[in-house]
Each structure stands twice: as C-alpha cells, then as structure tokens.
Amino acid sequence: MKRTADAIWNRGLKEGSGTFNVGSGALQDQKYSFKTRFESDPGTNPEELIAAAHASCFSMAVAAQLGERGITPKAVATRASITFEDLTLKKSLLETTVTAPGADRGKVEEAAQAAKAGCPISKVLNLEIELQLTIEN
C-alpha cells in the first residue's frame, strides 16, 4: 500500500507560500507559508499534519491493543502536541482518554504502552514521545 501527497512552494522562503494535496482527495489546495509555520497566521503547517497523523494512528493502535486484551473501547480520544524547536521536532505529547466501561485499568495501561511502542507513526518519528493517559469507565 502506498499513500501520496503533493506539495508546491512558490517564491522564496519568507515571502513565499505553497499548497498541498493528498492522494485520497480528503485535503486539497491546503495553503501553508512561513507565517503559518513559524508565526501564528491561520493555516496549516507540516508539524500540525504530523500531530494529526500521530493522534489518529495512536488512537487506532490503542483500540487494536485493547482488542487483543479482550476490551472493546467506547472511545479512544488523543490530542498530539508536537514541539518544534531549532528546526527540529523534539517531542510528541499524546494526551489520550480511553473510555472503556468495566475494563481492567491495568490492561488499559498495558495496551496504551504497547500502542506507544507499536504505532507506525511513533516508530517513524525520531523524537521523545510522552503519554498522558486518562481512563474513564
């Protein structure tokens, strides 16, 4: 399986801008610029997209790990916050809430740790990954 994305950048770094599209068509003509990446202008940036990828992948990985332990969650919600400093991705903070009524807390914690190590996006990121887990019954 292959997934694709295309991006184009026009002009120089600070005054330029670009757009990207993903192969599925889910995101088309998304604008990005120096100001959306390094300042606070509205719009997206590569780090935000990495955060979205990590949050979604991790939530699915937790659900898979829970399933291996006989637990079907009602929901797994994750917010990923990527720290980007000195042109380097430093950290991904995963704030995850697992809602699994009646589930054994130890098994949920074990599943989350296994997901942290096994999530395909976690594996590809060369940064510190911190997990803050909340379990709701």
* CATH level-four homologous superfamily name of the largest domain: K homology (KH) domain
Distance N to C terminus: 36 Å
Low-pLDDT runs: none
Question: Percent of residues in beta strands?
Answer: 35-45%
The average pLDDT score comes to 97
Task: Report the major sheet.
Answer: 3 strands, antiparallel
CATH class placement of the largest domain: Alpha Beta
Rounded to the nearest angstrom, the radius of gyration is 17 Å
| Count of all domains | 2
CATH topology of the largest domain: GMP Synthetase, Chain A, domain 3
**Structural class given helices, strands, pairing?**
alpha+beta
* Count of helical regions: 4
Which strands sit side by side, in order, in the main sheet?
A: 1-2-3
Question: What would the principal axes of the Cα set say about the shape?
Answer: elongated
Helicity range: 25-40%
- By CATH, the architecture of the largest domain is named 2-Layer Sandwich
Count of strand segments: 6
N to C succession of SSEs: EEEHHEEHHE
Features:
2 domains, 137 residues, 3-stranded mixed β-sheet, 34% helix, elongated, 3-stranded antiparallel β-sheet, 35% strand, alpha+beta, GMP Synthetase, Chain A, domain 3, 4 helices
